[in-house]
Amino acid sequence: METLEEIELCFPQLLNSSCKKLTRPRSEALIIYILMSCVSLLTVVLNLLVIVSISHFRQLHTPTNLLLLSLAVSDFLVGLIVMPFQILLTEPCWLLSDSVCVLYYIFAFITVCASVGNMVLISVDRYVAICDPLHYSTKVTQRRVQSFVVLCWVSSVFYAFMILYDNIKQPGRFNSCYGECVINMLGAVDLVISFIIPISAIIVLYVRVFVVAVSQARSMRSHVVAVKLQRSLTVTVQSSELKAARTLGVVVAVFLMCYCPYYCVSLTGYGIIMGSSINAFTDFLVLITSCLNPVIYAFLYPWFRKSTKFIVTLKILQPRSCEANVLYS
């Protein structure tokens, strides 16, 4: 049998009260640190480009881009704060206080939930733009979008405090020993609110958008008389249909692939325990959506590529650069 001296503890001075220090192969730990650090840096850079672009150029001050800005802010905070703390959770021992552990999860829930909420709002925006274009400008105003963005963030804060109430009330109450960062929550409730409802809304709205877009394209094609023009339009319509289908597929597939493993583990009934390779992997998948969101939503817009060139080449520092034309070639 091993003696206390032979067992490596997180806090040796606490003896039986300390958690055992789980060992991980050095190569595995190195891969985790490098991968998560690179993803964190990339997440910060990509979302910062979106934030600067939409905030600086006046042409981009639209209701739709305000939603993209809110999404980029939440994802930027995930990359700047949540991901680095997630690296600490891959360590065998939690050396910070129980209060810091709970604060980390509160902030993580707020930013991730805000990110998901913004994705739903973007889906609603596109639904109105395609399905009711004549009334879009009256239904989707700058002030109304601002109100929904604020509501999204307030709801995320409220939800984070509600789902983690027991942990906030008594930090560390679910730890079995010193050196753990464990929280407990209602997995079924979180599954419904943070996953089933948002993904259902996104799928329904995007399917509706796709059906209406294809219907409008076919209607236009049926009224074309000239054969040459018809062929040209057919190519355009087919390209539009494929692009719509591809965008829909990417959005839904990325969301499902990143969130399904996390909720499968969450529903097993086990606490979220630091040092667990499974929890580290599922948490990483959820967080990586913050890196993919600017790629999916912003990189599809030509204005983002043009504004990025302005930023990278430092033309943004020139006088009246905010008036630059980034929407048209």
Automatic annotation (TrEMBL):
Residues 29-294 form the G-protein coupled receptors family 2 profile domain. One of its GO terms (molecular function) is trace-amine receptor activity. PROSITE patterns: G_PROTEIN_RECEP_F1_1, G_PROTEIN_RECEP_F1_2, G_PROTEIN_RECEP_F2_4. The keyword Iron-sulfur does not apply. It is a multi-pass membrane protein. It holds the Pfam family 7tm_1. GO terms for cellular component: plasma membrane. Its main location: membrane. The chain crosses the membrane at residues 30-54, 66-90, 102-124, 145-165, 185-211, 248-272, 284-304. GO terms for biological process: cell surface receptor signaling pathway. It comes from the Eukaryota. Residues 46-297 form the G-protein coupled receptors family 1 profile domain. SMART domains: 7TM_GPCR_Srsx. Gene3D superfamilies: Rhodopsin 7-helix transmembrane proteins. It is found in: Cell membrane. PANTHER family: HISTAMINE RECEPTOR-RELATED G-PROTEIN COUPLED RECEPTOR, TRACE AMINE ASSOCIATED RECEPTOR 19P-RELATED. This is Trace amine-associated receptor 13c-like. The gene is LOC114858740.
